[in-house]
Each structure stands twice: as structure tokens, then as C-alpha cells.
Amino acid sequence: MIARYTHLLILLVAIHSTSAFCADESDFFESRTGPLLRKHCQGCHGAKKQEGGLRLDSRVGWQAGGDRGTAIVAGKPKASLLIRAITYKDKGLQMPPAKRLCKSQIDYLIA
What are the residue boundaries of the structural domains of the chain, listed by start? Predict the structure, then answer.
């Protein structure tokens, strides 16, 4: 009987920890990354328009990616198409196209 309650307690702690992590992650995105993407990316890769089939206004959009594949590789920013695009290292993939992000914005997204 005690074992049954122990499993329930472990499950409740795990659910609470996951919820807290997701809330913290969401808050961080909304306060830092979200505004940067909204300002520089979502005009072409948002709800109204998806150039190259890419949508950057949701996690589902990043994971699904666009015509070139997944936009973000979790834990490997330098392997991510989004990072390749904003660093202008690939002549055929430079975003935003009108003006490169400043170094501090690029560094922030790579970190």
C-alpha cells in the first residue's frame, strides 16, 4: 500500500516539475526570443504568410520546418537552419533578407 502512494507521489512531483519547466520556458520565450522573431521574422514566416513553407510563430512551426526542413535543432544551434540563415554563412539562405541582425541578436539566438 505504501508503494502505491510512493508511485503516486513521484508521478505528481514529475508532473509539477514538467509544468513548471514548461511555464519557465514559455515565459523566457515570450520575454526574449518571441519579440525578436516577431520583429524580424514573422512578417514572412508567421500566421499570415509562410515564405518557404516556414512558420516561426509557434514551436509546431519550428519543428515542422519549411521547404528546407526543420528550422531549429534542439541543443545544436549551429546545426539549425535558422542560425545558418541569420549568420549569413550560406549565400542562398540569408535572413532577414533586407538587413542582417546585429551581432548581439545573433549571439543571443545562438546561446
Answer: 33-110
